[in-house]
Specification:
single chain; 60s Ribosomal Protein L30, Chain: A; 2 helices; 24% helix
């Protein structure tokens, strides 16, 4: 088991890791729309979704992987009315790769974020 950490994504805001690599599989913690310096993005679903996906891309890169290695995503939305907007942005990042996915509505997220995403991946070049 190996802890994955990168300064290109925000540091954990609690007692957890950005991701854990075990037996070639990567399990990320949920990413919200914090910049790598730890500042929360604007209160806008488009901006927040882009930041979350940039954060996950950075964590994947640190593990030796990319979005093409993602097997499963779980998306948590504070407002299900944002579903279509999130889908459009998500499709920009994943292109033709379509991992399994769940999307659920939640009452609140840390720091009142509008979106949180966690992933399971099998990095093609694990560190």
């Amino acid at each position: 088991m190996k802890t994955i950490a990168t300064n290109e994504a925000p540091q954990a805001i609690g007692p957890y890791s950005q991701a854990i690599l075990v037996d070639g599989m990567l399990y990320t913690s949920g990413q919200i729309a914090l910049t790598p310096s730890g500042e929360m993005c604007e209160d806008d679903i488009e901006i927040q979704t882009h930041q979350v996906l940039k954060n996950l891309t950075a964590v994947l890169k640190a593990s030796g992987g990319s979005l093409n290695d993602v097997i499963k995503c779980t998306i948590y939305l504070a407002n299900m009315d944002d579903f279509a907007t999130v889908n459009e942005i998500y499709a920009e990042y994943f292109g033709n790769h379509k991992p399994a996915r769940s999307t659920v509505a939640v009452k609140t997220l840390p720091k009142n974020a509008k979106i949180e995403i966690d992933i399971i991946a099998k990095p093609s070049n694990p560190v």
